[in-house]
Amino acid sequence: MEAYGGMTPDPAQVVEAAHQSAALVVDAGRDAASTEEFIALVDEVGLSTLAALWSERPARTLPGVLWRLYVIREWIRRDPDRASREYTAGVRHAEVHHAVAGSAEPPGPTEVGLVADEILRGVYHGDLAVALERGSSFCHVISSGRAELADDIDVDDPAEGSRQTQQAAAMQSTAQDLQVAARLWRDGELR
User: Fold this and answer.
1) What is the tally of helices (H) and strands (E) in the chain?
2) Contact (CB, 8 A) for 18 and 50
């Protein structure tokens, strides 16, 4: 807003800024010396800054997938015990996805957090499509775990069980979006 004299920029300029910044972040993060800084980008600029840049972009765009990956990492950092519990519950229902995600055994709070960092490391220092596929698989496992735990909760608290089931469906949707984004990247169409 400072660049626009305190005025709100045109919506087209906001969209352009989101896509350009996402592309610049991915390119800059490929420098081995700065990869770790970009993994910890939220620590430096804050989740709200990334939200302002990327959260409104569709899930199957470069800024959209980066936003989702950083949100997942931040969720794990804020609630590692829940992330571990949901991941562990999902492993038996999504063994192949667990193998693709690459979680260490057993998937405790620390290990699950390391997987999120490794997925982001792959965004910057590896093949972006593979990183997105790993992120997708991670989300599949979490979704399966949430659904499993929602069934258990539903017996005593149907409203909470329903809420957890909706969260499982949302995570499944994110998994699908990341999978499609990986394909788009390979085809040179993820922007």
Assistant:
1) 10, 0
2) no
Are the beta carbons of 118 and 102 closer than 8 angstroms? yes
pLDDT at residue 54, rounded to an integer: 96
Containing structural domain, residue 113: 2-186
Residue type, 136: S
Residue 70: its H or E element: helix 62-78
DSSP letters along 160-186, please?
HHHHHHHHHHHHHHHHHHHHHHHHHHH
The answer as to whether 191 is a domain residue is no
Residue 178 · residue 65 · CB < 8 Å: yes
Least confident of 27-31, 137-141, 170-174: 27-31
Q: 162 lies in a domain?
A: yes
Going by C-alpha positions, the residue among 14, 159, 141 that lies closest to residue 72 is 141
Overall number of domains in the chain: 1
Please state the rounded mean pLDDT for residues 73-98: 95
